[in-house]
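question for whoever is on the cluster today: can someone run the full assembly for these? two chains, 563 residues total. i dont have access anymore since they changed the login thing
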Amino acid sequence: MHSTIKVNAEREGPLTLLKESSHNAPYKVIHYGSRHLHEHLELIMMSASPGIMDGDEIDIEVNVHENAQLKLFTQSFNRLHPMEKGAVQRTNVLVKKGGIYKFIPHPITPFANSIFRTVNEIQLDETANLIWGDIIASGRVHSGESFQFSRLHSITKVYSGKKLVLYDNQLLEPGRQPFDSILFYERYTHQATLMYVSPYAAELKAELDEILTTQYEEFTFGFTQCAPNAVMIRAMGNEGVMLYDWLSAMGQLCWEFTVHKQEEEQAKLDAEQTTEPKAEEKTAPVAEKQTKQKTAKRAKKEATAKSTAKKAKAIPVQPVGEELEEELAEAVAEK
Amino acid sequence: MQPLLTLLQINDSMFPIGSFTHSYGLESYVSQGIVHDTPSAKVYANNMLRHSIYYNDAAFLQKAWALLEEKKSVREFQKLDELITALKAPAEIRDASKKLAIRFLKLTQELHPIKRCSNYLAKIQEGKLHGHYAVAFAMYAHGSGITLKDALLAFYYNTLNGIVTNCAKLVPIGQGDAQKILFDLQATIKQLVDEQESMDEEMVGLCCIGQEIRCMQHEKQYSRLYIS
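^ ran it for u. tokens below:
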């Protein structure tokens, strides 16, 4: 069965709205809770089918337009049923200038003999922000079905300003790899990855260096600056729900951080525009009051945030507002 | 220039490019007690060759070689360089590849300059390319009249030599046991080299999840001897 899901998130004033979205059976994309609850957009992807069946083809397209903010949720674990031919999912994401897109789906659970190929192509503007997660279980672990699937290939390519910045190539083929061995899952049954691609990534990494100082008993994790503008967290554990909750909390932290940073920059821009530029200020000369000028300036500002972020890495304590510090602490405590 | 002698020299573990300062995650495995004796060191070495090196550095070497054979444009090398950079997620592993590439290129240029290598080094130093050791090695070996098969055999051998030497120092395992692992995996290396060229495009850069996590954890390891 061939299904398509299309989502367009557009910014109108302070709000992000859902425009020109479409989906067909068994999928449905609806507002997650009341649409009036947030200024950003929250959607949930639902399915009337018990999972992905043999021969299924799913095409997902998500467009996050300029400065739009979208969180896309899933309803439940993505179950891959026993197959002969296999199923394919293709996802294309586009995040434009200043946009934020967060997608951390529930774990993929591959049943015995399932064959699945998922390809994610993500195009980001250099000022766009991506919070992207994926969790793969070894199977229906509690039913004693672990690594009984045939093949699971997950390819994720992230481009920032047309340049390939991240390429995650995960092939899980129980006949090919020794999963219970060194280099692979060791004694674990689940793997999780979170990518944060953003002009603020280096600054977030410095925050994580302060926050994620000890390992947990239930799972093992590592994090790294995987590109100048990207941070990656990877984990292995035995509980899908626990990894999902933790990854969601970390994703929420990335979201709050991004929004806070953007607001900070916007406030600075607004202040610059209302006050006369002083001679000693090193900022570029303020041009005529044109509305278009604002967006151009913002883009420039965001581009330079990259170099600022690089420098910031050397500073041990980040100048972050108390409010955000509290939010970060809460997000971690929620775990 | 003698191809075999050149290969022996540039591939020597004592070739001073700093490869002995990297453990590529092994130090984490040892400190966490996962690699703790000769049998587990052998499993680690075997898995590294078959599941990490084969799909990554050796595959990058082979891809660079193919571009050299086909006399591809600079743009194609830039794409390969970007691909490798995007695949090497753990920062220490990415940096290791760059540092080794720079030192390898600088040193080999003093021995016998090869134009492509000097161009690659210049691009890395200008910040236009990231720089990766496997590509640098392929360029110099190709320019020195070495065959792809020999270059690959030597590359696997030296990678494995680095692994067993690190195991001997870190785990530790006996020098004799280390040499036994090196010898016993000859057939594996031969098989991987024979299959290298037929690798499907989508298999290049396959990730070993546990290995990546351990490499990331190394950044936070309290006491450490190695850079990666």
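summary bc i know u wont read the tokens: Chain A has one domain: 2-259. Residues 152 and 172 of chain A are 5 Å apart (CA to CA).
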